Amino acid sequence: MFLIQNPRYIDKINSISMFACQAYGAASKPISHAKIIAAKILTRLLGFIPARKLKMGACDESYHTMSQWYDWNLRRNFKSSFIKQSTFNQASTDTNGVADELLDYRQQMPNITIPVYAISARGDRFISPTHGCQMLFDDFKNPANVFREYALSHGDLDDYTHSRIMISRNAAKEIWPTVTDWIERHTR
Questions:
Q1: What is the CATH number of the domain that holds 167?
Q2: How far apart are CA 114 and CA 144, in angstroms?
Q3: How far is CA 131 from CA 59, 76, 118, 139, 169, in A?
Q4: What's the CA angle centered on 123, arms 158 and 67, to 5 degrees?
Q5: How many other C-beta atoms can be found within 10 angstroms of the C-beta atom of residue 137?
Q6: At a CB cut-off of 8 Å and minimum separation 6, what does 68 contact?
Q7: What residue numbers bound the domain in which 8 lies?
């Protein structure tokens, strides 16, 4: 959450577009919780997640990259694994130990008032399921934000998966033009 850690850049950015983005809503059911535990163990053993072989994306991400994401989802929180609240808020004088707690990004998200266009994929049932994307989106608290799930049932071309939501011919035809329009509408 770059903008939370660097609020001086907020007024330099006109809008945000998020593709299949969630951080703490993928393990809402016991079966998805178990899958994330299994994925975390497998990733730890291999040292990376074999995303290309599993058709989950174009990059085989390292365990160290994925570890924080696994923990956010398993614990259902969005706390930094290394930034302390006291570091983030230099004016903090809390003596009850609160200042030494990890920074909770969710508490800071309403401060980002830049319009957000969040896209989810109906076929993404593991990494960024729609309900998880919706949870992250809702924490921004801006009425100008737009959330859109792409699905065959909505008349779209595909029940996109995590990787196909960005990298597919159908996405190029129907999703990318909406992102371009969003960016153009929010250009100053």
A1: 3.40.50.1820
A2: 9
A3: 24, 13, 12, 13, 25
A4: 140
A5: 24
A6: 81
A7: 2-185
Distance separating alpha carbons of residues 35 and 94, to the nearest angstrom:
39
Distance CA 114, CA 142 (A): 8
How many domains does the chain divide into? 1
8-21, pLDDT tens digit by residue?
A: 888 889 999 999 99
Selection from 160, 179, 181 nearest residue 170 by Cα: 160
- Positive or negative CA dihedral for 74, 22, 25, 140? positive
Six-digit token string for 27: 């393990």
Give the integer Cα–Cα distance in Å for 183 and 188. Answer: 10
Q: The pTM is what?
A: 0.87
Asked if 182 contacts 146 with a C-beta cutoff of 8 angstroms, the reply is yes
Give residue-wise pLDDT tens across range 77-133: 999 888 888 777 654 445 455 557 888 999 989 988 899 999 999 999 999 999 999
